[in-house]
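Reopening this ticket.

The earlier resolution said the output was attached, but the attachment link was broken on my side. Pasting everything inline this time so it's all in one place.
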Amino acid sequence: MQVSQKCTNDFHGLIDEQELDWSRKRTLPDFQVRNDDKGGGVIVFWHVAKTGGTTVRKQCASLPGVDYAMLLTPEDYKAGSLMIADRLTPSWNTELDAFNHSRSHTLFVELHGMHSLTVLEMESRLRHWRDLSQKHGTPLFVFTLLREPTEYSLSFFNFFHDQKLEGGPTQLELQRASFNRQCRTLAAYPTHNKRVCALLYRKLHQLFDWVGTTERLTEETLPLLQHLLRFKPAQQRFAAESSFLGPSTAKHNFLLPSSDKRNKYNVAVPDINTLERDALTQETVRVLGEKTCLDRGLWERAQQDYTLDMWDDIIDGRPSSEDTGYEGL
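Inline output:
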């Protein structure tokens, strides 16, 4: 069932297209460790809940040569910001940073939480990290994921809805609970209008290296991370599909798929008492389309402006790993 494309609060007209076109072609940072130990670098993942971030975390956080940290609340951000800045700054001690992490490791930081600071609130810190990266030649990669708004609203509602309510979830409750949540989470609370979302998108383009989508997670974002982390010390980085099943999954490293394997992974645990997309009425789909129009604008622009061919070191439409000596990552 298709969502109406008639958006009355569309923000595309507020975006400077020349600014986006001018900065489209970019070069991926090099996370290969050099003699000066600057290659470890930092990857910052801005995790919007229910966009596939748990899959990204489980794929990357336990990789050999990766130090993982999660920032959940505004209180976490002070120490986390210092940790990121320290890793991006050369030190007299090339072995360890101030937080006892190896500088040859890549620091993977996940900013996640329903009440975390927004991109607009974190702009000064993001610019500071970028300045440190450019000044000292330490690699930095900042990214996030967006999801098709109807699917996002449904997934968010199914996950956070009180499943114990008598009669289970209803489509009316879904309609009432849905709004431009992705824009609000990334931009501002409680304000989320088309000017705020247009400003958000400009900031994403200025401060982030990549804005992927849940729908193309396996085809784009995971291979991109695969390319960035290809120098980590692991000969075999593909987890068999069976390792994602059952209670023993915590014992496994959730590793990135090789470039010739396009299985779509979802590590979230399904709930049997949920609403399904195919069961939504036309009225519900219409209401969701109207109430999530700004999110749809963000999602559509991300698909248009962030593609793998935006990077200079792309071969055959995807990051090349031919120089790594590994089969995939």
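Reporter confirms the inline version is readable. The chain has one domain: 12-313. Strands lie at 42-47, 66-71, 106-112, 140-146, 210-213, 314-315, 318-319.
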